[in-house]
Structure formats: structure tokens, C-alpha cells
Amino acid sequence: MRSETRANLIFLTIFLAVALPGAVILFIKKLDPAAAPMYLPDPIHQRLPYMAPQWTPDEVTRVIPPITGKWVEQLTGEQGAGSGVALHERLPLISEDRMLQVTAMKYTPSRLIVYTILWDGEEGVDAANYRAAILSAGTTISGRVVAVRKIPMPDAVRKELMNDGYVAPRKWVAWLELQFDGSLPEGSAFVLHLSYKNGEVSLGRSVNLFTQ
To answer: Cα Rg for the chain, rounded, in angstroms?
Structure first.
């Protein structure tokens, strides 16, 4: 085999190795009936899923995608938090970085139970690494994390979120159940603070709970 032929074969092999993965991705996208035509530019999203973490201007509307909304409602019921998901002005109760969502709250004479979803699921499932507190009228009430569960995100939910503009949703979320002892006035507004620390890694998130 001549050196020129060998060089051409090497070039062709490298070219195919680089080009084939992209060609496969484009072929799969073309098979998706919900995808936009490939000759059109990527759409500018005017609506985004409420938990998509990227910054957006004010004119972008945050929405509850239908498949995702039904899954969160189903998950809330399956985890013993009751039917329905907590909302304020038709949107879920969520932290500023959009990663911590409060899905439901239960009042009893002796305690308040708060159910939450961590959408990034990055912190893991060791309850000992979490700390929870409620801030109300200048008072801090410490709570405890009684359960952390790793919940796989269904493929249909993940696909819907990506199609709607959430760039890289996780394949699973963390479900947390928090308990706060003592009497808290039902209907009052307060702030939930959840922190995580594992070695040198430390994070903190807060959610305003509008319960009236």
C-alpha cells in the first residue's frame, strides 16, 4: 500500500469517527415528530419550565409543563403528602435558584411537615448532611430531615423539559420530608431554609412559603 493511500485511509477513519456521532444525533432528532424542522434555526423560548435554572429576562414566562406537572402531583401523592401541589399565583413554591421546590405542607397540633423536591439531586440522599429551619416573625425554628429518597425522573418528563428549554435536567431528583415540632399558625407566611454540608461542600437554599 502506497503512503498516499495509507494517509487517505487514516484521514477517512478519523473523519468518520468524528462525524458519525453527530450524524446519529441528527438522525434521531429527525425521527422525533415533536421536534422543529431541521432547516429552521433553534427557536427562542418565550416560555420555560418553572424549574429551569438558567437566567431569563422578565418577558420570558415560567410555566408548568403538563407531563411534568402531572408527575410531580402523582409523586406528591405517592410519598404521602396528599393530593395537589402547593402553588402561589399559579406557580410552584420554589427557591431563587429554582432547584428547591416545596410541594406540600401538613399541619398537625404538634408539628408541621414539609415535603420538598431537589431538582438537581446533586447533594445525595444522606439525611445527616442536611439542616432545615423555618424563619417566621424573627423567630428561627429548627427542624429535622426525616427522609431523603432518590426518585428517577421518567423519560417522558425529562424529554418534555428538554424540548421546552431546560438544557440538561438530571435523571433523578431528591425527595425530602422535613418535620418541625411545635405549634405554627396555619395560614401564616414564613421562609423555609434548607442547607447541605458534606466536607468542604456547603449549599443553602430558601423558599418563601405563602400559605394564605
So the answer is: 23
Look-up of cell digits 422525533: 32
Which of 136, 129, 132, 135 is CA-nearest to residue 144? 132
Alpha-carbon span 19 to 22, nearest angstrom: 6
Q: Given a cut of 70, is residue 185 above it in pLDDT?
A: no
123 closest CA partner among 14, 24, 199: 199
Per residue in 67-104, pLDDT tens? 999 999 999 999 988 878 999 888 999 999 999 999 99
From CA 68, how far away is CA 37, in angstroms rounded?
24
Q: Which three cell numbers stand for residue 12?
A: 477517512
Q: Can you tell me the mean pLDDT for 148-162? A: 95
What pTM was estimated for this model as a whole?
Answer: 0.76
Sort 139 into a burial class: Cβ within 10 Å, 0-12 / 13-18 / 19+: exposed
Q: Which residues of 100-118 are buried (b: 16+ CB within 10 A; e: fewer)?
A: bbbbbbeeeeeebbbbbbb
CA separation for the pair 128, 112 (Å, rounded)? 20
Residue ranges and CATH numbers for the domains of the chain are 1-43 (no CATH), 47-209 (2.60.40)
